[in-house]
Amino acid sequence: MDRSNSKAAKRIFIFLLGSMLSVQGPVKAEWQKPLQPSLSGGPLTCLAAHPLDPAKFLLASERNIFEGGEESRWKELWSHTESAAGIRKIFSFSALPGAVFVLANDSLFAGNLQDLSWQKIYEHSDRRPLSFSVDAQNANRWFLGTQKGLWETCNAGKTWSPSSVFRPSVPVAVLFSEEARLFVATENALYLSLAGRPAERVFSMPAGERDFTEDELDDINEENHFFLFKIHDLIFSKNPSPVLFLATRNGVFQSLDRGYRWTALPKSGLQNPEVFQLAYADCLYAATPRGAYKYDALKSKWSGLFDGLAQNDVRGIAVLNHEKLLAITEEGFVESPLAFLGPEAPPPLRIYQPDEKTLVLLKELFALEPSAREVQKHVIKYANVSNGKIKRWHAASRVAGMLPTLSFGKDYSTGTSIDLDRGSTTDADRYILGPEDRSKGWNADVSWHLGDMIYSSDQTSIDSREKLMVELRNDLLSEATRIYYERRRLQISLVFSPPASEQEFLESLVRMDELTMLLDGMTDGFFSKRLERVYNEKPEFNQLWEFQQKDGALDSGLAPRDSN
Fold it and tell me: How many other C-beta atoms lie within 10 A of the C-beta of residue 322?
């Protein structure tokens, strides 16, 4: 076959493929679980980009480092023989393209990917390493964040000393170097150092969660101790404009001025606000305890990437060559394509406008469904976190001062009387036993502590419990409110922007049912009981959630309106 015929055959194949896709719609990406690396070294812990080949990546278990790529083959690069020192993080830097750094429980290792040589460059049991970074402007200057402050080396790891950039002896959870900037994250704050000058605070976590005490920090020995702090990850994106993203226990924050001012991204769509790790490729991706998420900047909303994901707990996430999304879950390593096949020309724009009857039904349903305030009241009642309990405790502690303290005692004793009869010089002495000596007694004591009516020592304990209860109540109400309005937005989206396929429509209904059950779990079934009564009284509301196909146009019980 000559070259012209070959090109013609390719064009025919592409045309037929496009025709099939135009009928069936774009292919939906799902998580795939490819061939797994050897798990003899323990469960998978982290992954990172390959510093030499963008089509490859690095994956770590507790004692092994593997190299992966587009092929379903794994190459073992290094095996750590010390079983107690599990691998927790992998680092690679553009300033040192052939090097990879491995952070273990109490050690830091450096590896050369060209000759596969490895060496230990730091070890300290009292100053366990938590983070690592290479100076972007000096490849021989390295920074190491430990449980007790920031350390640095200017001779590529030969000697370490306390850093002048950041003096406090506190845990340094995250380090990030970009041009002349070094970001240092502690448990709940972020500091910025410019050109080697002392770091200044640029961000603090919102108040509400207590900090760890020094004794608790010294006792942290869990496998996931990196995630016990409030700041987890920091990444930088240059496309389309420079943006910094900060992953925290309370959502994601972004900075548009290279780290001076930070604003919180919306949490809408996130089932859990805690974000372990971030990745960026045309959009932002997040690893959370409840799965992987993608952030839609236009809608200011997160969408879950759950298809094909058996385990929700995602601890690591990365992008491979702008083609695949990689993740580590409890079941192992998974991947998903980022680019989807689709028709060459997009389908014509369809603008859906609900008819008047549909709008009236939706507004009436909103009026009859439980309000956010009702949901909050039932959350407080079910969790028993109302202020009334604390007020009763305070009142009871004062009333207790009016009540007397009563004490009763009983005394009973018995003994034998002994008398001595001394005889003459020729007679022996005699001991005479007398009658038993018995004594009985009762005593009672009554006392008042009237000072407790003004101030009781119990109030200190009550105040501590009140603080914890307020924090718990705020967390519960915040979560319930977020779920409530996410469900409400999903209802509006189903009516005004119906899905293009029945599968997507059913998935949206499943998601709405999931949000309903989450509210049920926080209100002891109140939400579903009210909905059941509303729909029983007016079954017409079910028409809002019916999928229909009319005249070749996909519809959700709504009439399409021509864009012209």
Answer: 10
**Contacts (Cβ under 8 Å, ≥6 apart) of 64:** 37, 38, 40, 41, 76, 78, 79, 80, 87
Structure token digits, residue 395? 């009142």
The CATH code of domain 230-338 reads 2.120.10.30
Calpha distance 288→267 (Å, rounded): 12
Domain 45-123 listed as CATH 2.20.25: yes
Residue 154, number of CB atoms within 10 A of its CB: 14
Do the two domains 45-123 and 230-338 of this chain adopt the same fold?
Answer: no
- Per the CB < 8 A criterion, the answer to whether 133 and 175 are in contact is yes
pLDDT tens-digit map of 222-258: 444 445 689 999 999 887 788 999 999 999 999 999 8
Distance between CA atoms of 71 and 56, rounded to whole angstroms? 9
The answer, yes or no, to whether residue 490 has pLDDT greater than 60, is: yes
Paired strand residues for 549:
554
pLDDT 10s digits, 3-47: 445 544 544 444 444 444 333 343 445 788 888 888 777 888 899
> Which pair of tokens denotes residue 291?
């799965």
Confidence of residue 162 (pLDDT cuts 50, 70, 90): very high
Q: Are strands 189-194 and 181-185 parallel, antiparallel or unpaired?
A: antiparallel
The domain ranges of the chain are: 45-123, 141-209+217-228, 230-338, 351-384+463-561, 389-453
Q: Which of 325, 131, 317 has its CA nearest to residue 231? A: 131
Residue 49's pLDDT is: 86
